[in-house]
Amino acid sequence: MSENTSRNLWLEVITMPLGERSKKPRNHGLTMVIDKGLGLNETKDLFTVAGDYIDFLKLGFGTSALYNRGVLEEKIKLAKCFGIDIYPGGTFLEIAIMQNKLKEFIKMAGTIGYSTLEVSDGTINLSQEVRERAISMALDAGFKVLTEVGKKNMQDKEIIGHYLRQVKRDLDCGAYRVIIEGRESGKNAGFYDELGRFIEDEWEQLLVAAGDQRLLIWEAPLKQQQQDLISRFGPNVNLGNIAASEALALEALRVGLRGDTLRPVYLRESSYK
Fold this sequence. Notes:
The chain is an alpha/beta fold and about 270 residues long. It contains 11 helices and 8 strands.
């Protein structure tokens, strides 16, 4: 594709209301999309339309075990062709640990071609020793490692101090980013209440524990959550568990091409006139 056909001509006419986004490969402003079973054609279409704005594709839960191997390997190849890190969901690794198959799991993930692994305990409980060993083994095998803090079921939730220590330890152990749990629903899980609102005091403490909000990926499947995070941290906040069908819509929200994030810019600029 020539430079002329790949360049978006609209950018010669307008500027993005919320400012320019970081370009791939990027270390902030990351978008993680959750894939709950896209076909190969759907995957290729997604990447063709929105690949410039997707940094991670997570094959949710344990769906990796349900694909025909050829289909799975083709999806992984497609992701790599578009410069997208692809990985199996953390629940899949939790099953491997529960069945004492962590070493075999990591080896198989490398054989199939995954570039990233997620270490989590959203459903099971991991000791700090096992968690750190999983991170270390994945790093030694050449994977980029994401970790996740928070529980999928609020009945299993620990006191906030536990998660604050976990964020710091994971980063100290070499995790690339720490994901803040929100599930694909964005409600009554992790650090969201039953209406999908952040539990404000916990949110603030997580930021302090990380030291730099760019080291966190906020699972934010709901538009209001995305809008709140963009409003607070700007267009280059790291967001995760984005539905595949919403990848381009999120990018528009990030840069102020939707009314929700354009309105504050308009009101601010109008007040100066």
